[in-house]
Amino acid sequence: MNSSRRQFLSILGGTAAAAALGGGNALAAAKDDSFEFLFVTDTHLQPELNATQGCDMAFKKARAMKMDFALQGGDHVYDTMKVSKERAVSLFDLYGKTEQDLGMKVYHTCGNHDCFGISSKGSTPQGDQLYGKKMFEEHFGRAYYSFDHKGVHFLVLDSVLPATDQTGYSGHIDETQLAWIADDLGKIGAGVPVIVSTHIPLVTAIDSYVKLPANHRSGRGGTSIDNSEQVIAIFDKHNVIGVLQGHTHIWETVTWRGVPYTTGGAVSGNWWKGTHLGTPEGFTVVKVADGKMITRYETYGFQSVAPENT
Ligand SMILES: [Fe+2]
Q1: How far, in Å, from the CA of 92 to the mean position of ligand 1?
Q2: How far is the CA of 80 from the centre of ligand 1 (A)?
Q3: What's the 242 CA to ligand 1 centre distance in angstroms?
Q4: Residue 175: predicted pLDDT
Q5: How many whole angstroms from 246 Cα to the centroid of ligand 1?
């Protein structure tokens, strides 16, 4: 075959490929900026109940999926709110070692169980250098921040407001963080897609699915952020395409004003005791394509040694 004939066939091949993709779509395909990442939440790592083995299983499955990065939705460990400093430090160390199984960049969201001593009713000094969110910040950095990936702006919120008397927490976004959210989103270009991560949900219907016990921390502040309407009012001015949430260990999406608020189940399922309200141990795969956030849930085959399925 002479060189001009070979060149002609080569051009024809390119044209055929473009035709197969539908002409102009060939250009769109070349510009495809869709991507996938993981939302991994409520690992509740502890040495008991085979939790470390469970996390290993989940992270190794996740690693093989070759995602762009992982977003951890909080409650990395179980628990640091009311345990000794020695136990809290050992849990964070165990988590740090286990997370290496993921083998990808991980962004972290602060959960209530990650806040050292906040339910200790005075037995942990509030002046301790690792008290509250300081232990989280020591390991993972700021409790709220933003970053960008392939044209999408990510906002990671700190949804946990510890009670000043060390009796727990509320889901709340304080004035300083509200101002930061408005400022941060004000700096990005109009129309830039935004995805939000928050441990305690902004929007959930969990109280509609089950009658929670009277002493359960249900309702706003317990199962959702008590001033969510203030946060949503800021989101309304921007192109928020999805919100990823943890805390309640259920797989759920509530859509409000076209925005999916997806609660991403839990790696630990029912705190390592099987399924929680029907949601098994697992994590969320998030695809961003055509300006939309699409989610699916992946389980990983963990068998609880002490099942109490709900
Ligand atoms: Fe949790």
Answers
A1: 15
A2: 12
A3: 21
A4: 98
A5: 7
Domain 36-299 has CATH 3.60.21.10: yes
Which pLDDT tens digit goes with each residue over 127-149? 999 999 999 999 999 999 999 99
From the CA of 42, how far away is ligand 1's center (Å)? Answer: 5
Residue 273 in contact with residue 304, Cβ under 8 Å? Answer: yes
For ligand 1, the distance from its centroid to the CA atom of residue 74, given in whole angstroms, is 7
Q: How far is the CA of 111 from the centre of ligand 1 (A)?
A: 7
Ligand 1 centroid to Cα of residue 240, in Å, is: 25
Checking if the pLDDT of 108 tops 90, the result is yes
**pLDDT in the model for residue 33:** 86
Any idea where the domains of the chain sit in the sequence?
36-299
pLDDT digits (tens, 9 = 90+) for 138-189: 999 999 999 999 999 999 999 999 999 999 999 999 999 999 999 999 999 8
CB–CB of 267/57 below 8 Å?
no
Q: How far is the CA of 44 from the centre of ligand 1 (A)?
A: 7
Q: How far is the CA of 142 from the centre of ligand 1 (A)?
A: 20
CA distance 161 to 167: 11
**18 CA distance to ligand 1 centroid (A)?**
49
Q: What is the mean pLDDT of residues 229-248?
A: 98
37-68: buried (b, 16+ CB within 10 Å) or exposed (e) per residue? bbbbbbbbbbeebbbbebbebbbebbbeeebe
pLDDT digits (tens, 9 = 90+) for 42-77: 999 999 999 999 999 999 999 999 899 999 999 999
